[in-house]
Each structure stands twice: as C-alpha cells, then as structure tokens.
Design goal:
By secondary structure, this protein is mainly alpha-helical. It has eight helices and no strands.
Length: about 190
C-alpha cells in the first residue's frame, strides 16, 4: 500500500495532482502487489496468521514515510546526488560501527562472500540513488509505485527459479502490475 499512501499524501499536501490514468495506474500496481500477500492463505482466503495483515500495513506506513522523506530530501537538498551521498555515508558509518560493536574485528577479515556482498551493496546504492533522483523529476507517487514493482519480480523469481510455486494468482498479479505501469505513461 505504500505507493498508494505516497500518492495520496503527494496529492493532498504536495499538490501533486496526477492525471486520472496515472492514479488508476498507481492503484493497479498497489492492488497487484497487495494480492501477492494472499498467495498462501487459509480456506477463507486470508493469510494463515491474521497478524500478517497488520504487519504488512505497518510496513507500508514505514515505506511510505521514508519514501516521502527521501523524495523531499532529494528535492530540497542542493542536489539529489549530494543528498544520497550524505544519506549513504551516514547510514554506512552507523551500520559499520554497529557491526563492529556486535561482531568485533572478526568481521573485518576478508571472506569469499564479501565480494558478492560488496557488489550487491553497490547495485543497491545505485538503484536507490536513481529512485531519489527520479523523485526530483516526477511526482513521488508514480516513482514509488514503479519502485515497488520489484516485489513482482521477487515473486516471479521465487516461482520460476526457486520453485516455490508460481500459481495463477501470481501471474495475474504480475499482469495487473504491468497494466498499472502502462497507465502511468498514458
């Protein structure tokens, strides 16, 4: 629900009024992503543990909050690039110190997996950098919705590569999300 929340906040407080097709597109993307939460359900169509919905909604609120924070931070900073550099420098220092405190100096020893972790970290920084930069050029809601489409790719990877079961619901969700993405550009 984070893209829908960001879109509503953007419309109400930031006056980012989207064309109707874009509003519908964001709604379809959110609907497609939310429908993935119901891949494994009890007989009534609800998740096996009802608390999962509350946790998912709480997570959506946090995602919406940091998306709005980063989008506005990128807009109000001298440049989105400077904002991202300071954001990751601050986060990196904090996490480095936390890991050093929790694991000691042993985590500094080179390990084979470090190269993969470093490569993944670099790709993550670049992806997030691009999202913040995009939020300085376009309304926050559609950018947030496009970013969340990665959930569909994760579902497809879990079904096709990890063989965790890719049912008709996941395929339908991917199609709904794709329709939403198309409507963002109409």
């Amino acid at each position: 629900l984070a893209p829908a929340i960001v879109t509503l906040v953007g419309a109400i407080w930031l006056k980012e009024i989207l064309p109707t097709a874009a509003f519908v597109g964001v709604g379809l993307i959110a609907l497609g992503i939310v429908s993935l939460a119901f891949r494994r359900t009890n007989g009534a169509g609800l998740p096996n543990d009802p608390r999962a919905l509350a946790y998912a909604f709480g997570t959506s609120l946090f995602i919406a909050a940091y998306t709005l924070n980063d989008g506005l931070g990128g807009r109000f900073a001298e440049s989105p690039h400077i904002y991202v550099i300071w954001l990751f420098a601050g986060d990196g220092l904090i996490f480095f110190l936390l890991v050093l405190w929790r694991r000691g100096r042993a985590f500094l020893k080179p390990q084979r997996a470090m190269a993969y972790g470093f490569a993944g970290g670099v790709m993550s920084v670049i992806a997030y950098w691009l999202v913040i930069w995009a939020m300085t050029l376009a309304p926050l809601g559609p950018v947030a919705a496009l970013r969340e489409t990665s959930v569909v790719f994760a579902a497809l990877i879990s079904g096709l590569i990890l063989k965790e079961g890719l049912g008709p619901r996941a395929v339908a969700a991917a199609c709904v999300v794709a329709a939403g993405v198309i409507l963002l550009k109409v």
